[in-house]
Amino acid sequence: MNPSVPALEVERLTKSYGRARGVVDLTFSVERGEVFGYLGPNGAGKTTTIRILLDFIRPTRGRASILGLDSRRDAIAIHRRVGYLPGEFGLYERLTAHEQLTYLSSLRGGDDERSIRELAERFDLDLDVRIASLSHGNKQKVGLIQAFVHRPDVLILDEPTQGLDPLMQQAFYRLLHEARERGGTVFLSSHVMPEVEHVCDRVGIIRDGRLAAVEDIDDLKGKALKLVEVRLATPAPSGTFDRVPGVREAVAFGDRVRITMAGPIDPLVKALASHEVLDLQSREPSLEEVFLTFYATGDDG
Amino acid sequence: MGSVLTKTLRGQRRALAWWVVGLVAACVLTTAFYPTISKNAASFQKLLDSLPEGLRKAFGENFASPAGYLQARLFSIFAPVLLLIYAIGAGSRAIAGEEERQSLDLLLSTPVRRRRVLLDKALAMITATVGLGAVLALAIVVTGPPFEISIGVADVVAAVTGCVLLALAFGGIALAVGAGTGRRSVAVGVTAGIAAGSYLIDILALSVNGLGWLQRLSPFFYYRDPESIIRGLDPIDAIVLGAIAVISVAIAVWAFERRDLSA
Predict the structure, then answer these.
(1) Which residues of B are less than 8 Å from A103 in CB distance?
(2) What is the ipTM, given to two decimal places?
(3) pTM, full prediction
(4) Among B101, B111, B263, whose Cβ lies nearest the Cβ of A79?
(5) CATH number of A8-221
(6) Is A74's Cβ below 8 Å from some Cβ in B?
(7) B109 and A87 in contact by Cβ < 8 A?
C-alpha cells in the first residue's frame, strides 16, 4: 500500500439528522504513526464522525477513508485493519470476559489467545468472571483489550479512558505508546483536555458538528488561556488590568475581578502588587471555556 | 464459539431447554386426555356439531379420531402459537436485540458483513424452530400409542412441518421489522399484531361469505387448509409459507444493509 496515503482522511463530511445535531463539512486527515486527538464537548459530533468511519452510519455528503480504503465500499477491509472501541457498548452479560474476547477475535479469523492473556494481565482483568458481574471500569478494559488484541494498523478509540482508574489509564497510555512504536496510528476522541495534551501529537477540535481547529498540541498549549480570579480589598476602577500584557479580558463584579489571560502570569502579578489582594485563584480553563473564550471570538463567532 | 450462528444458538441453550420441556409437557397433557375424549366421543361430537360452521371448521370436524383429536386440540391453535411465540421472539431479538443492548457495534467492527450476521441469525432461528418442531413430532409419536393414539409418523411430520413453516413465516417478518427498525418491541408488537389479525381474518372468512379473497392474504389460511395431519401437507401451501419466510429474510437483509445503526 502506498505509504503516502494518510492513515485516515475525511473530506467535506456531512451528516444531517433533521434538526438534531450531526456533523457539517468536516475536512481533515491523520498521518500514519500519528496520535490524533479528536476533542470536543459531549454531543459535538465525535461519535458521529467515528461511526461514519466504520460504516455504521452513512454520510449525507462527503467521504471518509482509512488507509486509502473507502469507508462505504471497503468497510470490511477497513474493519480488518482497525481496532475500535465504541464510546458506549454492551457486552454479552452471560459470557465470561474470556468467551467474549475469544468470540470477537474468532470473528476476525485469528487465534489471539496469547495476546488476550497478556493484555488481561496488563489491565489486571480476571478473564474468568462473567461480564454481568464486572464493574463499569472492568467492562471498559474488555472493550480496550478487544481493540488492541489483533495489533491493528489503526486504532479508533471513542472516549477510551472513561471509567478507568488512574493506574489503568497509565497502562492504557503505555499501550498507546507501544502501538505508535510499531508504526500504528491512533485516532482517539476525548472531552478531557489534560488527557489529550498528555498523549496526542495533534488535535482536531469539534464544536456543534463543525471543525473549529486542527492544531499541534504544542501550539494549542501556547494558546490555552488561564483564568485568574482575584478579590481586592478596595474595588479597582474598571479598565485597570486591560492593558496588562497577556490579558484578554478583565471583568469586575463587586470586589472581584475575573481575568482571562494567555502567556506568562508575571505581568499580572506585578500589576496586582499595587493593590491589596485578599485572595487569588488561578486555574486552566476547561475545554468548554477554551471554546467559549477563544474559538467563539474567531471568524464564526 | 466460531461463528455468529453457533454463538447465537449456544446463547439460547438454557431457553431452548425450557422450550423442550414445555412442548413435551403440552404434548403429554394432550395425548393423555385422548382416552377420556374417545370414550365420550358421541357427546363431544354433538357439542361440536352445535357450533357455528366457521368455528367447527377452525377446530376440525372429526373430533373422535386420533388425527381429528390432535388437529383440534394441538394443531388448530396450541402448537402453532407456541412455535410462533418462539420464532417471533428469536426473529425480533436477532438484530434489534443486539442493537438495543449496544453489542452490535462491536460485532460489526469485525470483518463480518452485516448480511452475514443477519443470515447467521436467521439460520439460528430456523435451526432452533425446526429443532423444536422435531421435538414436538417426536413427543407425539412417542406419547401417542400408550394413550390409544395410533397415527402415522408421516402425518405427524406433515402437521409439524406446517407448524414450523408458519412459525418461520412470522419469525421472518419479525426479523425484518427488527432489522429495519432496530427496535425489538416494535418487531414483537407489529408481528404479533399481524399474526393475530391474519388469524382472525382466516377464522372470519370461514363463516362470512365473500371474504374468500381476503383469506388468501392470511398465512394461517395456508397452514390450516387443508389440515395437514388429516390430509397431508399441501405442497403449494408449504411453498407459500416458505416463500413468506424467505422473502422476509431478503427484505431484512436489504433494510439492514442500507440503514444507519443506532449507537
Answers:
(1) 1, 7
(2) 0.85
(3) 0.84
(4) B111
(5) 3.40.50.300
(6) no
(7) no
Each residue's pLDDT tens digit, A112-155: 899 999 999 999 999 999 999 999 999 999 999 999 999 999 99
Q: How far is the alpha carbon of A166 from chain B, nearest alpha carbon, in Å?
A: 25
Domain that holds residue B16: 4-258
Cell digits of residue A131: 461480564
Q: How many domains is chain B built from? A: 1
Calpha distance B7→A30 (Å, rounded): 37
How large a percentage of chain B has pLDDT more than 90? 50
- Here the cell at position A150 is 489483533
Strands A256-261 and A82-85: unpaired
State the nearest Cα–Cα gap between B252 and chain A, in angstroms: 16
> Which of B4, B106, B260 faces A146 most closely, judged by CB atoms?
B106
Nearest to A273 by CA among A250, A244, A238: A244
CB-based contact A56 B4, cutoff 8 Å: no
Check CB contact under 8 Å for B103 and A84.
Answer: no
Chain A residues touching residue B7 (CB < 8 angstroms)? 103
At B204-228, the pLDDT tens digits run: 877 777 777 777 888 888 887 667 6
All three cell numbers of A280: 487569588
Q: Does residue B263 fall inside a structural domain?
A: no
| Crossing angle of helices B78-92 and B13-31, rounded to 10° | 170
**Angle, nearest 10°, between helix axes A136-148 and A113-122?**
140
Looking at domain A225-283, which CATH architecture does it have? 2-Layer Sandwich (3.30)
